[in-house]
Amino acid sequence: MKTQKQKMLAGELYVADDPELAEDNRRISAWLDRYNATSTLSQPERQALLAEAFARVGDGCNIRPPFHCDYGFNISLGRGVFLNFNCCILDVVAVSIGDMTQIGPGVQILTADHPRDPAQRRQMLEFGRPIVIGANVWIGGGAIILPGVTIGDDAIIGAGSVVTRDVPPGGIAVGNPARLRMPG
C-alpha cells in the first residue's frame, strides 16, 4: 500500500495534511524562513541554499526573496534561471524550469489540483500535475501557470496571464485565460 507521499509524487489522489507530508512542510518552512532572510547575501550564497532544498539547481540561478514553495524537492532549475520577488511554486509534483528562463515578480506556478467531484473534495483529497517550463522563457509579473502546463523553449507569457494550456516553443501567450498570439 502506498503512503500519501508516494501517492502525491505519483500524481494520484492523496490527503495533503498527512503527518509525513506535514513533516516535509515543516522542514521546507524552516528552510524558507532562512532563505527569505537572505536579501543581503550574494547570489552564490543564495544559490548554495537553493541546492539544499531543490532537486536540481544549475549554475547562476537567482531567486530573489521572498519566495514560497510547498516542498522544494520537486523543483529543478536549469542554468541561469531567475525568479524575481514574491514567486510561489506549489510543487506537489515535478516543476522543471529550463536554462536562462526569467520569471517576473509575483508569478505563481501551481502543480496542485483538486478533484472535480465534490465528495472527493470533502475528503480533503488533491492531486498534482507536473509543470515543464522550457529554456529561455520569459514569464511576466503576476502570471499564473496552472497544473499540467508545458511551456516550450523561447516562449513569452504576458504579465498577469493565466496559462491554462500548453504553449508551444516560441509562442506568445497573453490574457485570462491566456491565448496564443503570433510573434512580431
TrEMBL record:
Gene Ontology molecular function, alphabetical: acetyltransferase activity; O-acyltransferase activity
Maltose/galactoside acetyltransferase domain sequence ranges: 5-59
Keyword set, alphabetical order: Acyltransferase, Nodulation, Repeat, Transferase
UniProt entry tagged with the keyword Repeat: yes
Signal peptide: none
One Pfam family matching this protein: Hexapep
GO cellular component, one term: cytosol
Membrane-crossing residue ranges in chain numbering: none
Gene3D superfamilies associated with the record: Hexapeptide repeat proteins (2.160.10.10)
Family that this chain belongs to: Belongs to the transferase hexapeptide repeat family.
Function: Acetyltransferase implicated in the O-acetylation of Nod factors.
PANTHER family with a match to the protein in the record: ACETYLTRANSFERASE C18B11.09C-RELATED, SIALIC ACID SYNTHASE-RELATED
Protein name per Swiss-Prot or TrEMBL: Nodulation protein L
Organism: Methylobacterium oryzihabitans
